[in-house]
Amino acid sequence: MQNPCSPYRGRVAPSPTGLLHLGHASTFWTAFQRAQSARGTLVFRSDDLDPLRSQKKFETAALEDLLWLGIHWQEGPDHPGPFGPYCQSLRLPLYAQAFEQLRAQGFLYPCSCSRREVALALSAPHQTDPSEHYPGTCRPPEPRSAFPLPNSPVNWRFRIPASSPPLTFLDRAQGPQSATPGRDFGDFLVWRKDGLPSYQLATVVDDHRMKITEVVRGADLIPSTFQQILLYRALGWPSPAFFHCPLLCDPSGARLAKRSDSLSLQTLRLQHPSPESIRALFQSKACNAGRAPGSAPPSPAP
Ligand code: GLU
To answer: What is the pTM of this model?
Structure first.
Protein backbone atom coordinates (compact mmCIF):
# COMPACT_ATOMS: atom_id res chain seq x y z
CA MET A 1 0.00 0.00 0.00
CA GLN A 2 1.48 3.34 -1.07
CA ASN A 3 2.02 6.00 1.59
CA PRO A 4 1.69 9.45 -0.04
CA CYS A 5 4.21 10.77 2.53
CA SER A 6 6.91 8.19 1.70
CA PRO A 7 9.89 9.94 0.10
CA TYR A 8 10.90 6.78 -1.81
CA ARG A 9 10.61 7.06 -5.59
CA GLY A 10 11.84 4.21 -7.76
CA ARG A 11 11.49 3.46 -11.46
CA VAL A 12 11.42 0.76 -14.06
CA ALA A 13 12.82 1.99 -17.39
CA PRO A 14 12.54 -0.56 -20.19
CA SER A 15 13.78 0.28 -23.69
CA PRO A 16 11.01 -0.73 -26.10
CA THR A 17 13.44 -2.26 -28.59
CA GLY A 18 12.36 -5.87 -28.09
CA LEU A 19 10.32 -8.14 -25.87
CA LEU A 20 11.19 -8.22 -22.18
CA HIS A 21 12.98 -11.34 -21.00
CA LEU A 22 13.32 -13.03 -17.67
CA GLY A 23 16.30 -10.84 -16.67
CA HIS A 24 14.26 -7.66 -17.06
CA ALA A 25 11.38 -9.21 -15.19
CA SER A 26 13.62 -10.13 -12.27
CA THR A 27 15.15 -6.63 -12.04
CA PHE A 28 11.79 -4.90 -12.38
CA TRP A 29 10.28 -7.21 -9.77
CA THR A 30 13.05 -6.16 -7.37
CA ALA A 31 12.40 -2.48 -8.18
CA PHE A 32 8.70 -3.03 -7.49
CA GLN A 33 9.35 -4.84 -4.23
CA ARG A 34 11.69 -2.15 -2.97
CA ALA A 35 9.16 0.57 -3.76
CA GLN A 36 6.46 -1.52 -2.09
CA SER A 37 8.43 -2.19 1.08
CA ALA A 38 9.18 1.55 1.39
CA ARG A 39 5.49 2.20 0.62
CA GLY A 40 6.83 4.59 -1.98
CA THR A 41 6.07 5.45 -5.60
CA LEU A 42 7.14 3.46 -8.66
CA VAL A 43 7.47 5.20 -12.04
CA PHE A 44 7.32 3.39 -15.38
CA ARG A 45 9.45 5.24 -17.91
CA SER A 46 9.76 4.24 -21.53
CA ASP A 47 13.39 4.72 -22.65
CA ASP A 48 12.31 5.10 -26.27
CA LEU A 49 14.98 7.47 -27.55
CA ASP A 50 16.25 5.25 -30.33
CA PRO A 51 14.01 6.12 -33.29
CA LEU A 52 15.25 3.20 -35.39
CA ARG A 53 14.85 0.44 -32.81
CA SER A 54 12.05 1.62 -30.52
CA GLN A 55 8.56 0.43 -31.34
CA LYS A 56 5.27 1.23 -29.68
CA LYS A 57 4.27 -2.45 -29.81
CA PHE A 58 7.20 -3.33 -27.51
CA GLU A 59 6.19 -0.62 -25.03
CA THR A 60 2.63 -2.01 -25.04
CA ALA A 61 3.99 -5.54 -24.55
CA ALA A 62 6.20 -4.39 -21.63
CA LEU A 63 3.30 -2.64 -19.89
CA GLU A 64 1.16 -5.72 -20.35
CA ASP A 65 3.84 -8.27 -19.31
CA LEU A 66 4.76 -6.39 -16.16
CA LEU A 67 1.16 -5.91 -15.08
CA TRP A 68 0.57 -9.62 -15.63
CA LEU A 69 3.61 -10.39 -13.49
CA GLY A 70 2.05 -8.41 -10.64
CA ILE A 71 4.10 -5.19 -10.96
CA HIS A 72 2.16 -1.97 -10.51
CA TRP A 73 3.30 1.62 -10.86
CA GLN A 74 1.74 4.90 -9.86
CA GLU A 75 3.14 7.03 -12.71
CA GLY A 76 3.81 6.06 -16.32
CA PRO A 77 2.61 6.45 -19.91
CA ASP A 78 -0.68 4.87 -18.81
CA HIS A 79 -0.82 6.79 -15.47
CA PRO A 80 -0.20 10.51 -16.01
CA GLY A 81 1.54 12.15 -13.08
CA PRO A 82 3.31 15.33 -12.04
CA PHE A 83 6.68 14.45 -13.59
CA GLY A 84 5.55 13.37 -17.07
CA PRO A 85 5.69 12.83 -19.91
CA TYR A 86 6.94 9.32 -19.15
CA CYS A 87 8.38 8.56 -22.61
CA GLN A 88 11.87 9.87 -23.27
CA SER A 89 11.05 10.74 -26.88
CA LEU A 90 8.68 13.41 -25.51
CA ARG A 91 11.26 14.99 -23.18
CA LEU A 92 13.84 16.34 -25.63
CA PRO A 93 13.66 20.00 -24.44
CA LEU A 94 14.70 18.90 -20.93
CA TYR A 95 17.77 17.11 -22.27
CA ALA A 96 18.66 20.08 -24.49
CA GLN A 97 18.54 22.36 -21.45
CA ALA A 98 20.97 20.13 -19.52
CA PHE A 99 23.23 19.90 -22.58
CA GLU A 100 23.31 23.71 -22.79
CA GLN A 101 24.20 23.99 -19.12
CA LEU A 102 27.07 21.52 -19.50
CA ARG A 103 28.32 23.20 -22.66
CA ALA A 104 28.15 26.67 -21.13
CA GLN A 105 30.13 25.50 -18.12
CA GLY A 106 32.89 24.00 -20.23
CA PHE A 107 32.27 20.30 -19.52
CA LEU A 108 31.82 19.35 -23.19
CA TYR A 109 33.72 19.47 -26.44
CA PRO A 110 32.68 18.74 -30.02
CA CYS A 111 33.85 15.50 -31.59
CA SER A 112 33.69 14.03 -35.05
CA CYS A 113 35.00 10.52 -34.26
CA SER A 114 33.77 7.04 -33.59
CA ARG A 115 30.74 6.34 -35.67
CA ARG A 116 30.12 3.01 -33.97
CA GLU A 117 30.02 4.50 -30.49
CA VAL A 118 27.76 7.27 -31.69
CA ALA A 119 25.39 4.67 -33.05
CA LEU A 120 25.34 2.90 -29.69
CA ALA A 121 25.01 6.01 -27.53
CA LEU A 122 21.22 5.95 -27.38
CA SER A 123 20.98 2.64 -25.63
CA ALA A 124 22.26 1.53 -22.26
CA PRO A 125 25.67 -0.12 -22.75
CA HIS A 126 25.03 -3.49 -21.15
CA GLN A 127 28.36 -4.93 -22.22
CA THR A 128 31.04 -2.34 -21.79
CA ASP A 129 34.11 -3.05 -23.83
CA PRO A 130 37.15 -1.27 -22.37
CA SER A 131 38.78 -1.30 -25.81
CA GLU A 132 36.14 1.22 -26.79
CA HIS A 133 37.85 3.83 -24.62
CA TYR A 134 37.80 7.05 -26.57
CA PRO A 135 41.45 7.82 -27.44
CA GLY A 136 40.94 11.58 -27.18
CA THR A 137 41.46 12.44 -30.85
CA CYS A 138 39.24 15.56 -30.76
CA ARG A 139 39.89 16.43 -27.11
CA PRO A 140 41.31 19.95 -26.85
CA PRO A 141 44.47 20.21 -24.75
CA GLU A 142 42.82 22.58 -22.29
CA PRO A 143 39.25 22.76 -21.03
CA ARG A 144 37.41 25.57 -22.69
CA SER A 145 34.30 27.14 -21.28
CA ALA A 146 31.29 27.43 -23.57
CA PHE A 147 32.74 25.82 -26.64
CA PRO A 148 30.82 27.62 -29.41
CA LEU A 149 28.21 25.68 -31.37
CA PRO A 150 29.80 24.87 -34.75
CA ASN A 151 27.93 25.81 -37.94
CA SER A 152 27.03 22.22 -38.70
CA PRO A 153 25.85 19.75 -36.01
CA VAL A 154 28.51 17.62 -34.27
CA ASN A 155 28.65 15.04 -31.50
CA TRP A 156 29.62 16.22 -28.01
CA ARG A 157 31.72 14.47 -25.38
CA PHE A 158 32.13 14.96 -21.66
CA ARG A 159 35.69 15.96 -20.86
CA ILE A 160 37.05 13.90 -18.01
CA PRO A 161 39.43 16.05 -16.00
CA ALA A 162 43.09 14.98 -16.25
CA SER A 163 44.24 12.87 -13.27
CA SER A 164 40.75 12.43 -11.85
CA PRO A 165 40.68 10.73 -8.46
CA PRO A 166 38.76 7.44 -8.18
CA LEU A 167 34.99 7.74 -7.99
CA THR A 168 33.28 5.61 -5.39
CA PHE A 169 29.74 4.85 -4.42
CA LEU A 170 28.10 2.41 -2.05
CA ASP A 171 25.80 0.19 -4.02
CA ARG A 172 22.88 -1.02 -1.92
CA ALA A 173 23.06 -4.50 -3.44
CA GLN A 174 26.68 -4.95 -4.54
CA GLY A 175 28.57 -3.05 -1.84
CA PRO A 176 31.35 -0.48 -2.39
CA GLN A 177 32.18 0.32 -6.02
CA SER A 178 35.07 2.29 -7.41
CA ALA A 179 36.38 3.36 -10.84
CA THR A 180 38.97 5.83 -12.01
CA PRO A 181 37.80 8.18 -14.80
CA GLY A 182 40.38 8.40 -17.56
CA ARG A 183 41.68 4.93 -16.73
CA ASP A 184 38.54 2.79 -16.52
CA PHE A 185 36.57 4.84 -19.03
CA GLY A 186 37.25 7.75 -21.35
CA ASP A 187 35.49 10.92 -22.50
CA PHE A 188 31.97 9.70 -23.17
CA LEU A 189 29.26 10.86 -25.53
CA VAL A 190 26.62 13.21 -24.19
CA TRP A 191 24.94 14.47 -27.35
CA ARG A 192 24.66 13.21 -30.90
CA LYS A 193 24.79 15.39 -33.95
CA ASP A 194 21.33 14.21 -34.98
CA GLY A 195 19.93 16.16 -32.02
CA LEU A 196 19.48 13.30 -29.55
CA PRO A 197 21.03 12.96 -26.07
CA SER A 198 23.05 9.88 -25.12
CA TYR A 199 21.58 7.28 -22.78
CA GLN A 200 23.81 8.64 -19.99
CA LEU A 201 22.51 12.21 -20.22
CA ALA A 202 18.85 11.28 -20.72
CA THR A 203 18.93 8.92 -17.74
CA VAL A 204 20.47 11.49 -15.41
CA VAL A 205 18.06 14.23 -16.49
CA ASP A 206 15.04 11.97 -16.06
CA ASP A 207 16.07 10.39 -12.78
CA HIS A 208 16.70 13.89 -11.41
CA ARG A 209 13.57 15.50 -12.85
CA MET A 210 11.37 12.58 -11.83
CA LYS A 211 12.81 12.87 -8.31
CA ILE A 212 13.94 9.24 -8.28
CA THR A 213 15.54 8.45 -4.91
CA GLU A 214 16.80 4.93 -5.75
CA VAL A 215 17.80 3.53 -9.15
CA VAL A 216 17.31 -0.24 -9.34
CA ARG A 217 18.78 -1.87 -12.47
CA GLY A 218 21.04 -4.70 -13.61
CA ALA A 219 24.64 -5.02 -12.38
CA ASP A 220 25.85 -4.75 -15.98
CA LEU A 221 25.08 -1.03 -15.81
CA ILE A 222 27.50 -0.32 -12.93
CA PRO A 223 30.10 1.12 -15.38
CA SER A 224 27.45 3.58 -16.62
CA THR A 225 26.75 4.69 -13.08
CA PHE A 226 30.22 6.23 -12.80
CA GLN A 227 29.63 8.31 -15.93
CA GLN A 228 26.25 9.32 -14.60
CA ILE A 229 27.77 10.38 -11.27
CA LEU A 230 30.11 12.72 -13.19
CA LEU A 231 27.08 14.21 -14.95
CA TYR A 232 25.19 14.67 -11.67
CA ARG A 233 28.18 16.51 -10.23
CA ALA A 234 28.66 18.68 -13.31
CA LEU A 235 24.98 19.63 -13.30
CA GLY A 236 25.06 20.33 -9.55
CA TRP A 237 22.43 17.71 -8.76
CA PRO A 238 22.53 15.10 -5.98
CA SER A 239 22.88 11.48 -7.15
CA PRO A 240 20.14 9.02 -6.22
CA ALA A 241 21.01 5.82 -4.35
CA PHE A 242 21.87 2.82 -6.53
CA PHE A 243 20.84 -0.83 -6.22
CA HIS A 244 22.32 -2.98 -8.98
CA CYS A 245 20.65 -6.39 -9.16
CA PRO A 246 22.55 -9.61 -9.84
CA LEU A 247 22.14 -10.72 -13.43
CA LEU A 248 20.40 -13.89 -14.53
CA CYS A 249 22.29 -16.48 -16.52
CA ASP A 250 21.38 -19.38 -18.78
CA PRO A 251 22.67 -22.88 -17.94
CA SER A 252 25.96 -22.16 -19.77
CA GLY A 253 26.56 -19.14 -17.51
CA ALA A 254 25.86 -16.61 -20.29
CA ARG A 255 23.84 -13.52 -19.46
CA LEU A 256 20.24 -13.57 -20.56
CA ALA A 257 19.65 -11.00 -23.24
CA LYS A 258 16.75 -9.75 -25.23
CA ARG A 259 17.84 -11.88 -28.15
CA SER A 260 17.23 -15.04 -26.07
CA ASP A 261 13.77 -15.20 -27.54
CA SER A 262 13.05 -18.49 -25.87
CA LEU A 263 13.17 -16.63 -22.56
CA SER A 264 10.99 -13.71 -23.54
CA LEU A 265 8.20 -13.20 -21.05
CA GLN A 266 5.68 -13.71 -23.82
CA THR A 267 7.05 -17.19 -24.52
CA LEU A 268 7.53 -18.07 -20.86
CA ARG A 269 3.96 -17.10 -20.12
CA LEU A 270 2.82 -19.90 -22.41
CA GLN A 271 4.86 -22.46 -20.43
CA HIS A 272 4.32 -21.02 -16.95
CA PRO A 273 0.78 -19.81 -16.79
CA SER A 274 1.08 -18.27 -13.31
CA PRO A 275 3.13 -15.21 -12.37
CA GLU A 276 4.32 -17.04 -9.23
CA SER A 277 5.93 -19.82 -11.27
CA ILE A 278 7.83 -17.24 -13.36
CA ARG A 279 8.93 -15.38 -10.26
CA ALA A 280 10.27 -18.66 -8.87
CA LEU A 281 12.68 -18.77 -11.84
CA PHE A 282 14.39 -15.55 -10.70
CA GLN A 283 16.12 -17.29 -7.79
CA SER A 284 17.12 -20.36 -9.73
CA LYS A 285 18.88 -18.37 -12.46
CA ALA A 286 20.70 -15.70 -10.45
CA CYS A 287 24.38 -15.66 -11.40
CA ASN A 288 25.35 -12.93 -8.97
CA ALA A 289 27.58 -11.08 -11.45
CA GLY A 290 29.17 -7.93 -10.17
CA ARG A 291 28.87 -8.64 -6.43
CA ALA A 292 32.05 -7.51 -4.73
CA PRO A 293 33.73 -10.40 -2.88
CA GLY A 294 32.74 -10.35 0.77
CA SER A 295 30.23 -7.55 0.24
CA ALA A 296 27.34 -7.18 2.61
CA PRO A 297 23.90 -8.53 1.74
CA PRO A 298 21.54 -6.05 0.07
CA SER A 299 20.35 -3.26 2.33
CA PRO A 300 16.61 -3.00 2.89
CA ALA A 301 14.69 -0.29 1.09
CA PRO A 302 14.70 2.79 3.35
N1 GLU B 1 16.54 1.42 -20.56
C2 GLU B 1 17.60 0.59 -20.07
C3 GLU B 1 17.33 -0.84 -20.47
O4 GLU B 1 16.26 -1.18 -20.91
C5 GLU B 1 17.76 0.66 -18.56
C6 GLU B 1 18.40 1.91 -18.19
C7 GLU B 1 18.52 2.18 -16.70
O8 GLU B 1 17.88 1.48 -15.90
O9 GLU B 1 19.21 3.14 -16.37
O10 GLU B 1 18.18 -1.64 -20.35
So the answer is: 0.91
